[in-house]
Write a sequence for this structure.
């Protein structure tokens, strides 16, 4: 029994490690300069694959993802800054291509709404507490 | 009074539920993205023409009349289904269609067009998807309507079919006005 449990535990731990390190960048895409390669990887992790839509282009093996990965690396070698690369992508595909949406007027609701809901929740709990306290006094 | 306030979240919950249910039953494709290029000038680019020995220069070629820009490939099955409607648009509606051949083999395309007929006024070659990325293309086929000033007015993601042909022609007429 213990052996089976141990096997399951080992499986769970190792499968997680594999899942975390899973990416689709192919060896021939790598840049010579490790610093630049790291920059490319970091940008790719923030860019949505528009074919799979819930994966970043770093994880996706779709052909558009590969094309974008190569283009980003070309732009880095050409000397473009991260900002310039993100601007290039959003000019063509919109903010949706960024996995982390920017804070601006059109995305205000997206950012503010969770806090509004939290405030409403706290308010409701507070109200409820007050009510039960009053009931206690009335006893 | 306080009881009424506590009912509010419940009502809100059901309203949200209703909104989700509505989005679920209406006819829409949730993975379809609106183009950010609408009402913007066509991207500037130069591309090799596949059938003639000349270079196509944008935005110079987008003048005087309305044009369609169609991204297609021989490996794309919906593109094959769409082909007859593109021919219909060029023959019956006299529309100029610029075909951009996306990540394909030039020999295959030439054969494909010889066999099926060529609805395009120019066929441009985009072997590494560089043009596709400039136009924000993410799935084939995609068709853009560009007005006579070289401004992109509409994008259709997916093929022109029997079902949406009339609606598409209507869109072209709207842009023509």
């Amino acid at each position: 029994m213990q052996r089976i449990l141990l096997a399951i535990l080992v499986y769970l731990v190792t499968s997680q490690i594999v899942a975390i390190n899973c990416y689709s960048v192919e060896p021939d895409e790598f840049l010579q300069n490790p610093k630049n390669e790291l920059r490319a990887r970091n940008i790719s992790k923030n860019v949505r694959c528009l074919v799979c839509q819930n994966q970043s282009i770093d994880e996706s093996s779709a052909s558009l993802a590969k094309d974008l990965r190569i283009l980003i690396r070309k732009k880095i070698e050409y000397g473009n800054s991260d900002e310039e690369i993100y601007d290039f992508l959003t000019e063509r595909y919109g903010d949706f291509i960024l996995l982390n949406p920017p804070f601006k007027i059109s995305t205000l609701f997206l950012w503010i709404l969770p806090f509004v809901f939290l405030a409403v929740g706290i308010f409701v709990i507070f109200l409820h507490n007050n009510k039960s306290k009053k009931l206690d006094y009335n006893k | 009074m306080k009881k009424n306030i506590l009912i509010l979240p419940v009502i809100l919950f059901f309203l949200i539920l209703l909104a989700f249910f509505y989005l679920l039953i209406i006819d829409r494709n949730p993975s379809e993205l609106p183009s950010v290029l609408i009402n913007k000038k066509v991207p500037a680019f130069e591309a090799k023409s596949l059938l003639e020995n000349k270079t196509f220069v944008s935005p110079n070629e987008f003048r005087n009349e309305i044009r369609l820009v169609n991204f297609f490939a021989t490996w794309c099955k919906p593109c094959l289904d769409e082909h007859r409607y593109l021919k219909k648009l060029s023959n019956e509606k006299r529309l100029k269609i610029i075909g951009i051949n996306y990540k394909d083999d030039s020999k295959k395309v030439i054969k494909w067009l010889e066999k099926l007929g060529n609805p395009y006024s120019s066929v441009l070659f985009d072997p590494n998807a560089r043009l596709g990325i400039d136009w924000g293309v993410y799935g084939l086929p995609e068709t853009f309507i560009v007005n006579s000033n070289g401004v992109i007015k509409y994008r259709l993601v997916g093929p022109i079919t029997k079902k949406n042909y009339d609606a598409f022609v209507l869109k072209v007429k709207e842009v023509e006005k």
About this structure: Chain B touches chain A at residues 2, 5-6, 9, 31, 33-37, 103, 128-130, 132-136, 138-139 (CB under 8 Å). The two ends of chain B are 57 Å apart (CA to CA).
